[in-house]
Structure formats: C-alpha cells, structure tokens
Write the structure tokens for this entry.
Amino acid sequence: ETGVTQTPRHLVMGMTNKKSLKCEQHLGHNAMYWYKQSAKKPLELMFVYSLEERVENNSVPSRFSPECPNSSHLFLHLHTLQPEDSALYLCASSQDLLDRGLLGNEKLFFGSGTQLSVL
Amino acid sequence: TQLLEQSPQFLSIQEGENLTVYCNSSSVFSSLQWYRQEPGEGPVLLVTVVTGGEVKKLKRLTFQFGDARKDSSLHITAAQPGDTGLYLCAAPYSSASKIIFGSGTRLSIRP
C-alpha cells in the first residue's frame, strides 16, 4: 500500500468518449502530479499541483484537463482522445513541491496507474 | 534528445549472477534517484544519491553517483527473481517541481 490510490486500474474508451481518472492520496502530502508512461517513451510529467494550484503544465494537449479540488484528490478529465494517447497514466504525490535538488528526503510516491486504451 | 540515457534497455540473466545497469547524461545534476517498477504497479523509490562519488548500499544493491554527477550505476549482487522489474533513474531538472526519468532498464531474472 503506497498511500496513493488510482481508479480505475484499466480503462478502454473510444475517441468520442469522455472519461475521468481519479487519484487519491492518504499521506497528507501537499503536491500531486500526473505522469504518462508509454512503451516508447520515458515517464513524461504532465501536470503538477501544489496546495490545489497548478504550478506546471508541460505543453499537454487540451484534450487532457486536470482538476485538483483539494490536496488529497486529483482528477484527469479525458475527451476526444487519440489512439496514441494509450498509455499508463500514473499519479504521484510528494510532501511538498520538490526542490531543485533532491536532498534525500524528497521523493515521489506513485499510485499503481490507470492503463488506458483508446480505440 | 533524452537527458538521461539508461543501458542496457533489456537484461535477462540467471539467478545468482551479478549485473550492473547504467544511467548517463551530459548534464550535471544536483542529485539522482533510482526507482524500481514492478508489472502493474507504479515506481517505488530505492535510493537518492546527492554527492559526487557517493556509494550507497541497499542489501544486495549498490548505487554509485559519478564524481562529476553526470552518471550513476546500479550493481546487483547474486540476482534473485524478486529483483525483476523496470529500473528507472530520475533527476531534478529545470524547474523546482520537475523530475525527469530515464527510459529504464527492464530486468528479468531467470530461476
């Protein structure tokens, strides 16, 4: 139990569907993240939230829309996705925003991910 | 262009053998982390190294941060099937909140 729970674990959707991924952390952390992991690329940071405010948006297409209603919950709303968006979507949290250097105490706690297939 | 290059991409060895995997970059990092990701799960942090030349041991795993803080290695002694997984190196980059990852080494240990 990592303390970060993602639902659903698996999702199959058509290109015209609208769906949402949910992430909940039970660790009392202040920062939450969405990462995308696909077979051909390394983990890609998508969004970062700190105390419910978005602090990073890495040029992610608008068909991905994050929402952070409180410091424990993070959503990723999906609409009109493309087949190339099929990937494992990982949520992570950290106590606070990671400083420029990782000094040994800062680390990411990941959920188990949502395996998304877009048909 | 990938900032963190990991090699090899795939490695399959017999139980009991030793192995080393590498994480290399042309950039200097203030620190570096290693994560292990098992099938169907998210990555789990193994270690953080922060000083050039630093060596850390975690049971049969030995991690080294290069003197110039551009590279790192992970050595596993007497590999066991439980070591199977995707090994990822990660480092802080650019902004205060951005951690970049290498593409990983997928390790398989045959019984």
In short: Chain A has a mean pLDDT of 90.
